Amino acid sequence: MFMQDQPFKYAVGLDVGTASVKCVVGHIEEGSAIPTIVGVGAHPNHGMRKGVVVDMVNTAQAIDKALEAAERASGYRIDAATLNINGSHITGMASRGVVAVGPAGHEIVSEDLARAEEAATVVQLPPNREILEVTPQGYQLDGQEKIKDPLGMVGVRLEVDAYVITALTPYVKNLRRACEITQLSPRRLVVPSLAAARAVLGEQLAENGAIIIDIGGSTINLAVYDEGDLQHVAVLPVGSANITNDLAIGLKTDIDVAEAVKLQYSAKASSKITVQVGDKKHVFDGEEVEDIVSARLEEIFETVNGELKKIGRVAKLPGGAVLCGGGAALSGIAEFAKNQLLLPARLGRLPAMSGLSDQVSSPEYVTALGLMLLDLESVQSTSADAHSGAIKTPLLAINQLSSKLGKVFKKFKV
């Protein structure tokens, strides 16, 4: 298949999830501020558990298939992307960086901010842990506090309060390795909740104070914002698949039937819930289903409140809770969250875009779309040839691949 050169900048978001890998390709032409969705791809993933790689072959294959579908739809060769990194090993901590910026009368420039942020990364970490991201929360200049942007101001001592996100190095390397197998270069690794926030959390909500709750299949990613800054991230080792498992056990039925019940579930369900799986019809008591789902949701939001308690934000976020991810499609979940968290709650609304936007309109594509928007920002800050578009070497030509991998990827990227 012919892959065209790029006369304009384009960007790729790759959501490597436990249940599936989703890819969104967008581009922005000169003079336009809104990206156009030009490619979408998805493929089931059987190589991850709780957000981390446990099977390199299957993970790489899922990435490759999702990229292939997005390439076919967009006509572009994908060789780099911004992708997510998931798992309960991800943690965040507060840090402070202090630097001397020059003699009296020195005007603060971007290089000074970069040095201060670099100083904030000097923290004690175990040898198997690395920094993913450093997010400034505010600056001090010669004792003046709560400065949002000190550029252009005059001073000699610059301090930054920052939030530092870290991850276990082996998990980072395994994810990168899975990408390398498909000849994809990870431009940046981002926590899913931060990508979701980029897609659905507006500046006003972040300023007022809000929590992103990204409900995936096996994990729930949280990001808390207040006064416009990131305050806290957490990854909970539970997700919508746990609701399915609870239903399978409680209703004494198969997983595929339990999944169908979950999708059919409504907080205002009738006395009976009927689902058709294959050629067989299954009927369950609506009240029993309600009890099972509610018990799990109550546990989930109690855990979310536990994270808010750590930072003193229980019922203290005027912007409320914004729910996204595949699990946010569960009927009545926003109302349940509102009652449990004692906060306003709503489903995340995606920004208006043109092109294949109808294919990414569901909550499960929020992370992939946010990753694409973050990648676009990176592309816009570099030259137009950030994505080279050069023809890839056939996968079988990679000398480092084992014979097992060679059997999996019996195709060329053409």
TrEMBL record:
Oligomer and partners: Self-interacts. Interacts with FtsZ.
Entry's localization field: Cell membrane
InterPro entries named in the record: ATPase_NBD, Cell_div_FtsA, FtsA/MreB, SHS2_FtsA
GO cellular component: cell division site; cytoplasmic side of plasma membrane
Name of the molecule in the record: Cell division protein FtsA
Bilayer topology annotation: Peripheral membrane protein
NCBIfam families: ftsA
Protein species of origin: Candidatus Chaera renei
Keywords: Cell cycle, Cell division, Cell membrane, Membrane
Family designation: Belongs to the FtsA/MreB family.
Superkingdom of origin organism: Bacteria
Domain SHS2, residue spans: 11-200
Record-linked SUPFAM superfamilies: Actin-like ATPase domain
Pfam family, one: SHS2_FTSA
Keyword Cell division: yes
Record has DNA-binding as a keyword: no
